[in-house]
Amino acid sequence: MKKYFICSLCHNGILGGGLIVDDNSVTYKTTKLTVAPEYRNLVLPLKEIRDITWKQSLFPVATFHMANGKEFRFLIFAKNHFIKHYQAVSND
Fold first, then answer.
1. Using CA atoms, how far apart are residues 33 and 22, in angstroms rounded to an integer?
2. Which of 3-17, 30-44, 61-75 has the highest mean pLDDT?
3. C-alpha span between 54 and 23 (Å, rounded)
4. Full-prediction pTM beyond 0.85?
5. Separation of alpha carbons 61 and 82, rounded Å
6. Contacts of 91 (CB under 8 A, 6+ apart)
7. Per-residue pLDDT at 12 exceeds 70
8. pLDDT tens per residue across span 21-67
9. d(CA 38, CA 71)
10. C-alpha to C-alpha distances, 79 to 32, 43, 69, 75, nearest whole angstrom
11. If pLDDT is split at 50, 70 and 90, which confidence band does 92 have?
12. For residue 20, which of 32, 29, 33, 31 has the smallest C-alpha distance?
């Protein structure tokens, strides 16, 4: 089941968009033309997400640690709802 979350990608600034969490991946989408093409539809397959760590500043920031060593940071405004749904689809 797909769920949508308002978020911002933290990459060379704060880039507004949305996260889509489904049974296969977490996908960041934005229509902003100032965002590099590889980040406009960023797909993070669940099988490749090693773990997610959280930091709380003004807003909750999630860092997705990928199996290939890359990291992606997102401000996710519905943290508890996101965690609940992510755990349900990833079986964590």
1. 25
2. 61-75
3. 22
4. yes
5. 12
6. none
7. yes
8. 999 999 999 988 888 889 999 999 999 999 999 998 788 999 999 99
9. 14
10. 23, 19, 23, 9
11. low
12. 29
The full length of the chain comes to 92
89: tokens are: 């689809």
Q: Which long-range contacts (CB under 8 A, 24 or more apart) does 78-85 make?
A: 78/5, 78/6, 79/54, 81/3, 81/5, 82/5, 82/19, 82/21, 85/3, 85/21
The pair of three-digit structure tokens given for residue 13, joined into one six-digit string: 């600034």
The region, left, alpha or beta by phi > 0 then psi within -120 to 50, assigned to residue 86 is alpha
